[in-house]
Amino acid sequence: MNTHDKRDGGIARVTDVDVIDIRFPTSRELDGSDAMNPDPDYSAAYVILRTDALDGLEGHAFAFTIGRGNEVQAAAVAALRDHVVGLPVDALCADPGSVSRALNGDSQLRWLGPEKGVMHMAIGAVVNAVWDLAAKRADKPLWKLLADAAPEWLADQVDYRYIEDALSREEAVTLLTRGKEGAWAREEHLVAQGYPAYTTSPGWLGYSDEKLVRLARQAVADGFTQIKLKVGADLADDVRRLRTAREAVGPDIRIAVDANQRWNVAEAIDWTNALAAHDPYWIEEPTSPDDILGHAAIRKGVTPFKVATGEHVQNRIVFKQLLQAGAIDILQIDAARVGGVNENLAILLLAMRYGVPVCPHAGGVGLCELVRHLSMFDFVALSGTTEDRVIEYVDHLHEHFKDPAIIANGHYTAPLTPGFSSEMHAGSLATYRYPDGAFWAADLAAQEKETNR
User: Fold this and answer.
1) Catalytic pick from 361, 373, 400, 411?
2) Which class is domain 14-139?
3) Which residue among 116, 120, 136, 230 is the active-site one?
4) What pTM does this model have?
5) How many CB atoms lie within 10 A of CB 152?
6) How far is CA 51 from each of CA 85, 122, 141, 340, rounded to the nearest angstrom?
7) Which one of 252, 356, 398, 431 has the minimum C-beta count within 10 Å?
8) Is 98 helix (H, G, I), strand (E, B) or coil?
9) DSSP class of residue 259?
10) 320 a catalytic residue
């Protein structure tokens, strides 16, 4: 009997979609702090896709949030349960695009977007859980499952609605077929050398100059050739911090700066140019992620500094327009913002079509773990290069994952464990479940005790 079958020989099906509200108290150390988000508590609406297959495998994934509202995100995931429970597992894993199309196609839920916001992120979490399950059943890490796949099958995973004026299925097949050339050698290189990373760990806005300098120097010692600083709250402060960082790392290390959507267009141009003396490499999220023409104006106004955005871009359609408008130099995908792997495949193909390098957003809860798979697939079987391409890395919360992101000499090592690296330890789920997990229950009791003194 196939281990994917049910015990009674019937067809294995999805039996449940569990959703858990997981939160970490990162705001207490100012980890993740920036000009727009001064007190993030990194959180996850965590999904477990359960089946009755004999192999006992589950699909794990999550939508990332920063604290308050995670219960809303979890409720959105729960609203998708009836669309998934009862689906045959073999068919689901053979065509993850089928669940993507079905969830995005629900006319009443679609009204809550369409294809953006909390509901779209919920769809992305469920779709990513399907991919995690599919990769586990194939006994491959997700990046290799994608890299080994036939170009035609991968092209069929993409929804071309609204993007055919920029990318057709035929063009996608051509790009993917071309990307296969020499893939085996690039896979060997990836496993041996890893994928280039940069670190944001020194640059959180709430950190002191002393901590910035210490962490920046440590990053260089650890092999990173790029770091990132948060900016946008106070110009004089930003100039001082960037000068301090440049003195700490020297002239040959790239320093990106990130405004987290803080500015209007003219302000973004003036502020970025005011930092020019200390050679910033890119300005990230200088204004609203929805302002395509604003990004184009900023790019023109800050040359030669590069403009990067993407972590809050809603879907493939907005990315298409950013590329068509020549509005960005660096495209930043996010593994948990859009509608899952399928939509990120579309975005990677669009970036390849327009010749724009992809440098993913990561950090948060598990984003490093997930997005490395997408970049590694891109290197092995699509773009074929890591030139001017780096994945963000932030050094916290990795210990909660069964297959954590590992950095060696400034590079992400290639994950070899089957799946999407999205599964958290059961103990972490039990401890940080909100509001009744062990940590939060004890925290609430301590607050009540302090109040009653």
Assistant:
1) 361
2) alpha beta
3) 230
4) 0.96
5) 12
6) 9, 19, 20, 20
7) 252
8) helix
9) -
10) no
